[in-house]
């Protein structure tokens, strides 16, 4: 059941509400009681008065009930009572209560209903302060209108935006404007509008060549200051108020359209490549290669063709090998001296001096007799 | 476009400013909500609080930016910011 009531000059009895809520299936009843405070911003409140658009208020309360029943279907009984007329300090002005099988639904739905009531049920509260005969109509912060800009200054909580003292140090950059919000907004808007027009005009100035009309009048216009590549002369059409005729378009050529652009770019990129990490190594290798070539008596025909130069060196080595096979063995064994000792190679190798001695011995034996010759043959 | 006579209800601050709690007003049957509010504020002397007002047509809040189709005898309530609870 929904129990909705606006009470005129009649106290709200919490016990009555509790009995309205009770239901055998319910394990929880949540009751919110709103009471009247005695102070507002250090002013002493002596009386509160409530006023309502009765029929609409009851309608809205019923809407809230159906909404919370939709959100929390397990709700059993809902009570919304609101007092009207004069309400003395510290008395209940509103009671919102729900009963449900479990406490969570009861508590949640009551909280939701309080917020809804404060934001849409047409009821007004007037606070009458001590020493102030004319009362003040209050505004709930939940009330969705008026929008922020029209809210009275007292509505704002200035604690949220504290002003700091560094404002004073920059005082020459800060202007204080004492105008209403709407006037201030209007000024900001017109400033934005003027800036937009200024930018647009500058863009058109860029686009147009002022040469023809302004130069004649002694106004110098720096073409280089403009970043526009296309410049046009616009002429007003005869018998037309808005159409402009493009008289001439002059395209200034950008670097990417210049004749040898690709070639120049290629060169630049190539140069960039040479300043790489390899460069030093390459120079080093080239000089070493040159030393080898001069040692081997080769003359490079094309210094930049490294492959050809290497090939020439290889050919030379092959030539040496074919003309003198010992050269290869000597090189191998020289490099692989240790392994040769371990392998205890059976192949006899002769050095040039040994060969010289051997040839000398043969010559000697040929001249002295055959006995020496047979001795030397056995050693071969 | 036809003209209709509607009832006007005043509450709280607007009731005090207008000096009445109920009045009548003649207006075009098709009107934008904010235009109607402007006319009512002008006529009943509510210009000082006009920007803080809301309207309800036959006990329902309206969107001030939308067009209303009013009938003879409709009830418009001028709703100042609410403070129930």
Main features:
heterodimer, A: about 375 residues, alpha+beta, Aldehyde Oxidoreductase, domain 3, two-stranded antiparallel ribbon, about 45% helix, about 20% strand, elongated, disordered C terminus, B: about 80 residues, Ubiquitin-like (UB roll), 2 helices, 7 strands, globular, Mopterin_biosynth_MoaE (chain A), molybdopterin synthase activity (chain A), cytoplasm (chain A), molybdenum cofactor biosynthesis (chain A), transferase (chain A)
Low-confidence stretches of chain A: 218-222, 372-380
Can you summarize the main beta sheet of chain B? 5 strands, mixed
Quaternary status: heterodimer
Write the element-wise H/E pattern of chain A from the N-terminal end onward. EHEEEHEEHEEHHHEEHHHHHHH
Shape of chain B: globular
In terms of DSSP E residues, the strand content of chain A is 15-25%
CATH superfamily of the domain at 2-138 in chain A: Molybdopterin biosynthesis MoaE subunit
Radius of gyration of chain A: 53 Å
Measured between the Cα atoms of the first and last residue of chain A, the distance is 130 Å
Helix content of chain B: 10-25%
Examine the secondary-structure arrangement and name the CATH architecture of the domain at 2-138 in chain A: Alpha-Beta Complex
**How does the helix and strand content of chain B classify structurally?**
alpha+beta
Shape designation of chain A: elongated
Word description of this protein:
Chain A has 380 residues and is α+β, with helices and mostly antiparallel strands. Chain A has a domain at 2-138: Alpha-Beta Complex (Aldehyde Oxidoreductase, domain 3), CATH 3.90.1170. Chain A has 13 helices and ten strands. Chain A has helices at 14-21, 54-71, 103-120, 166-169, 181-207, 211-214, 261-274, 278-296, 306-323, 325-335, 337-343, 352-368, 371-379, and strands at residues 2-8, 28-35, 39-40, 43-52, 78-87, 92-100, 123-129, 136-137, 230-236, 244-251. In chain A, the strands form two sheets. In chain A, strands 1, 2, 3, 4, 5, 6, 7 and 8 form an eight-stranded mixed β-sheet that branches. In chain A, strand 9 and strand 10 form a beta hairpin. In chain A, helix 2 (54-71) packs antiparallel against helix 3 (103-120), helix 8 (278-296) packs parallel to helix 9 (306-323) and helix 12 (352-368) runs antiparallel to helix 13 (371-379). Chain A is elongated, with a radius of gyration of 53 Å. With 85 residues, chain B is of the alpha+beta class. Chain B has one domain: Roll (Ubiquitin-like (UB roll)), CATH 3.10.20. Helix content of chain B is 22%, strand content 38%. Chain B has two helices and seven strands. In chain B, strands 2-1-7-4-5 form a five-stranded mixed β-sheet. A two-stranded antiparallel sheet of chain B has the order 3-6. In chain B, a hairpin with a 2-residue loop joins strand 4 and strand 5 (60-61). The N and C termini of chain B lie far apart (42 Å). Classes of the chains: A alpha+beta (380), B alpha+beta (85). The A-B interface holds A 34, 50-53, 55-57, 59, 82, 93-94, 114, 117-126, 137-140, 143, 145-146, 150-151 and B 9, 11-13, 15, 51-54, 56, 59-61, 77, 79-85. Chain B: Keywords: Nucleotide-binding. Chain B: GO terms for molecular function: nucleotide binding. Chain B: One of its GO terms (biological process) is Mo-molybdopterin cofactor biosynthetic process.
């Amino acid at each position: 059941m929904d129990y909705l009531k606006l009470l005129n000059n009649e106290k709200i009895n919490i016990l009555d509400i509790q009995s309205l809520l009770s239901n055998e299936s319910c394990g929880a009843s949540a009751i919110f009681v709103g009471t009247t405070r005695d102070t507002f911003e250090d002013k002493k409140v002596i009386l509160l008065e409530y006023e309502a658009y009765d029929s609409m208020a009851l309608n809205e309360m019923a809407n809230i009930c159906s909404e919370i029943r939709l959100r929390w279907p397990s709700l059993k009984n809902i009570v919304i009572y609101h007092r009207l007329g004069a309400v003395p300090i510290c008395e209940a002005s509103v009671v919102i209560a729900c009963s449900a099988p479990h406490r969570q639904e009861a508590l949640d739905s009551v909280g939701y209903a309080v917020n809804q009531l404060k934001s849409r049920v047409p009821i007004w509260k007037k606070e009458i302060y001590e020493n102030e005969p004319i009362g003040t109509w209050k505004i709930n912060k939940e009330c969705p209108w008026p929008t922020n800009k029209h809210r009275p200054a007292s509505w704002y909580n200035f604690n949220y935006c504290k002003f700091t003292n560094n404002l004073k140090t920059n005082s020459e950059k800060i202007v204080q404007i004492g105008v209403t919000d709407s006037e201030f907004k209007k000024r900001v808007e017109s400033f934005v509008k003027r800036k937009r027009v200024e930018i647009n005009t500058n863009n058109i100035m860029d686009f147009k060549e002022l040469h023809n009309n302004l130069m004649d009048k002694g106004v110098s216009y720096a073409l280089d200051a403009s970043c526009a590549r296309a410049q046009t002369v616009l002429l007003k059409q005869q018998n037309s108020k808005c159409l402009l005729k493009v008289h001439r378009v002059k395209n200034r050529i950008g670097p990417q359209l210049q004749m040898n652009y690709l070639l120049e770019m290629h060169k630049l990129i190539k140069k960039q490549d040479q300043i790489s990490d390899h460069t030093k190594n390459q120079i080093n290798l080239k000089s070493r290669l040159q030393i080898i070539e001069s040692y081997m008596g080769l003359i490079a025909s094309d210094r930049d063709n490294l492959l050809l130069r290497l090939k020439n060196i290889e050919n030379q080595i092959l030539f040496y090998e074919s003309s003198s096979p010992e050269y290869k063995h000597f090189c191998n064994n020289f490099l692989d001296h240790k392994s040769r000792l371990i392998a205890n190679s059976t192949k006899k190798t002769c050095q040039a001096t040994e060969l010289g001695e051997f040839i000398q011995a043969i010559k000697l034996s040929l001249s002295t007799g055959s006995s020496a010759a047979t001795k030397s043959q056995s050693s071969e | 476009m036809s003209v209709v006579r509607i009832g006007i209800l005043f509450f709280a601050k607007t009731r005090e400013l207008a000096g009445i709690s109920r009045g009548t007003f003649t207006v075009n049957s098709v009107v934008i909500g904010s235009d109607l509010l402007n006319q009512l504020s002008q006529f009943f002397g509510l210009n000082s609080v006009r920007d803080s007002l809301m309207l309800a047509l036959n006990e329902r809040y309206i969107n001030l930016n939308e067009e209303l189709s009013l009938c003879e005898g409709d009830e418009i309530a001028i709703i100042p910011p609410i403070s129930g609870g």
